[in-house]
Amino acid sequence: MALTNFRLPSLAAATEDHDISDGERVRFAGGVYDRGGVSDEELMEDLGEGDDELLGDAMTEDLAEEMGDDGDGENSESEDEMGGDPFNPADLGLKEINNLAHFGVSSHRPGNGVAELLSDDLDKYWQSDGQQPHLLTIHFLRRVEIRAIRFYVDYNQDESYTPTHVVFCAGTGHHDLIQFAEVPLTSPVGWQDVPIADSGGGADGHSLCCWIVQMHIKENHQNGKDTHIRGIKIYALDDHSLGGTAREPTRGLGAPFDDGHARVPTTQGLDGESLQELLDAFERHPISLSNFDSVREPVIR
């Protein structure tokens, strides 16, 4: 066996019974050797029976130390990639619309309210403080077309505070809320997707069109009373990521456009005689600014 990079030092005068530190000396069947001073040929002459196996073990340990850091790093990185959340809004053409809504809860403990629920820090959470069912009501500033709803729960941390039965309702107001999804949970950890694919809204029937969404938490694990929700995200189609073609078809230059307003005549394509007739009509019926007195800035009432 050729020893190129591995060096085991010279023969010591000590015996096998001598008490030594493993970090300073290496023990073989033929004796104890100090680290750091003998050639490979001298070492091979002093090796006794049974030393080949020990020498191979030592070389294996050194090789493992050299490769250990890089190998562990690659494994941990791959595990993180596999264990991460595969949901990517940008890839799906979605954008978060939490900023368009007002969030309200039926009850909460001090320091565990809506602000903690909407925080990106998943160590924070909304904790209810009342009777079941616990309600989270989301009022939007305008009618929205929702494509995804996700909420975060963690049974490993919250146990009896973790929901087992969640119902979602939506409508234009509190008077017409209709259940559109039911989510059963068993020891959940991570982001949970609310099924809305067949809600019937949007051009393809897979959107939830509404003004209000309400989350009902009816039961918890281990018959727990209060609940923990560590985050909620609501997404709609992102027109910009879809090139601005998600809402309305592009109108061509020659396409008719009827928006209920008077059409403005143009002089394009008029011959000299028609243009003169149009000018004569303006002279006979001049436009007075008083005709526009009724046109004022819109007022919100």
Automatic annotation (TrEMBL):
Keyword Cell division recorded: yes
Domain DOC: 73-261
A Pfam family this chain is assigned to: ANAPC10
SUPFAM superfamilies hit by this protein: Galactose-binding domain-like
Source domain of life: Eukaryota
Acidic residues: compositionally biased ranges: 65-83
Organism this protein belongs to: Parachaetomium inaequale
Cellular component, GO, one term: anaphase-promoting complex
InterPro entries, sorted: APC10/Doc1 (IPR016901), APC_su10/DOC_dom (IPR004939), Galactose-bd-like_sf (IPR008979)
Region (Disordered): 65-91
PANTHER family assigned: ANAPHASE-PROMOTING COMPLEX 10, ANAPHASE-PROMOTING COMPLEX SUBUNIT 10
Keywords recorded for this protein, A-Z: Cell cycle, Cell division, Mitosis, Ubl conjugation pathway
The protein's name: Galactose-binding domain-like protein
Record family assignment: Belongs to the APC10 family.
Any GO BP: anaphase-promoting complex-dependent catabolic process
Cell division listed as a keyword: yes
Alphabetized CDD domains for the sequence: APC10
